[in-house]
Write a structure and sequence with these properties.
Helices cover about 10% and strands about 40% of the residues. It has about 270 residues and is mainly beta. The two termini are about 35 Å apart.
C-alpha cells in the first residue's frame, strides 16, 4: 500500500463515538508487528479525522505495548483537553481487545510571542552525498523499508560492529507524493537504532517508547527530496539504549526532535 492509501483508509466506525478503523498491508511490517512509524501515522490521522480543525502537531508521545498484525486495525481517540490555542488528545491502537500502542499528542495554534529562536540550518558540506542508496532485500530488510531509501553519511550499517555511537543518514520516502505532517511522523521513525550499528551480527531490537517534537511547520514538500537524520546514542546498558535524533528537511532546516528507549537483545 502507498503511504497515502494508508492515511486515507482511516475512517470513523459508524455508531461508535471516537472509534476508527484503518487498513495496512504487510508491506508496512517490521518483524512480527507493524512498523512503529506507521502506527504513529495512523494515530495522528485518526485524531485529525476526529477533529478536522486541529492546529499543527507539536509533540507526540508513544508507548509500544504489543505487536500489531497487518490488516484491519482499530483505534480509539479521546479528547483530553481543548484550550484557546492548545489541544491534547490520546489514541489507543488496538490488537483485538488489547491495547497495542498508546499515543498522547499536543497540537497548538500559533500565538504572538516575544521569544523567537530559530535553529541553525545545517546542510551537508558541498559534494557530500553519502554512500550508495541501499537496496531493499526481500527476506533480509525490514518490510517497511521498501517505502524508504537510505544513504549512510556517517556511522555504521546495522550489525556492523561499528565503534561510533552516532549515525548520520540521508533518507527519503519512495512513495511518490507530498511530505506532510503524517508522512513526516512516519519517516521520523524509519532509521534503525544506533545501537544496532554497534552490534556485531544480527540481533533483534524493539522500541519501548518514543517522543517526537516538531520545531518547524512548513508547507508540504515533494517526497523526492532527501531528508537527514542525525542520531546519537546517549546511553546503553542492561539491554536498553537511549537514542536522540534530529530530523532535517531537504533544505537543511531542523524539522523535528526524536528520543527513543529501545530494548536490544544482544
Amino acid at each position: 500500500m502507498h503511504i497515502d492509501e494508508v492515511c486515507h483508509s482511516v475512517a470513523p466506525v459508524s455508531g461508535e463515538q471516537g472509534r476508527f478503523s484503518a487498513r495496512v498491508d504487510d508491506s508496512w511490517g517490521q518483524g512480527r508487528t507493524l512498523f512503529g512509524g506507521v502506527q504513529a501515522l495512523l494515530a495522528v490521522r485518526a485524531m485529525r479525522v476526529a477533529m478536522p480543525a486541529l492546529p499543527p502537531l507539536w509533540s507526540l508521545h508513544t508507548t509500544f505495548i504489543a505487536p500489531v498484525a497487518p490488516g484491519q486495525v482499530m483505534l480509539n481517540v479521546e479528547l483530553l483537553r481543548q484550550g484557546r490555542s492548545a489541544v491534547q488528545l490520546a489514541a489507543r491502537l488496538m490488537a483485538g481487545d488489547q491495547v497495542a500502542a498508546m499515543f498522547v499528542a499536543a497540537f497548538g495554534a500559533s500565538r504572538d510571542s516575544a521569544l523567537s529562536v530559530t535553529p541553525t540550518v545545517k546542510p551537508l558540506a558541498p559534494g557530500v552525498e553519502g554512500g550508495p542508496e541501499l537496496p531493499f532485500m526481500p527476506g533480509m530488510s525490514p518490510e517497511f523499508t521498501r517505502h524508504y531509501a537510505y544513504r549512510w553519511v556517517e556511522g555504521g550499517l546495522p550489525f556492523s560492529g561499528h565503534s561510533q555511537p552516532a549515525n548520520r543518514i540521508l533518507l527519503r520516502q519512495r512513495d511518490a507524493g507530498l511530505m506532510g505532517e503524517e508522512q513526516i511522523v512516519a519517516m521520523a521513525d524509519a532509521i534503525p537504532p544506533v545501537a544496532l550499528s554497534m552490534v556485531q551480527g544480527h540481533a533483534p531490537a524493539s522500541t519501548l517508547s518514543w517522543a517526537l517534537e516538531f520545531v518547524h511547520h512548513g508547507a508540504a514538500v515533494s517526497s523526492e527530496g532527501w531528508w537527514r537524520m542525525d542520531a546519537s546514542l546517549a546511553a546503553a546498558r542492561d539491554g536498553y539504549s537511549n537514542q536522540d535524533a534530529h530530523l532535517h528537511g531537504p533544505d537543511g532546516e531542523l524539522v523535528a526532535l526524536s528520543r527513543q528507549v529501545v530494548a536490544v537483545f544482544a
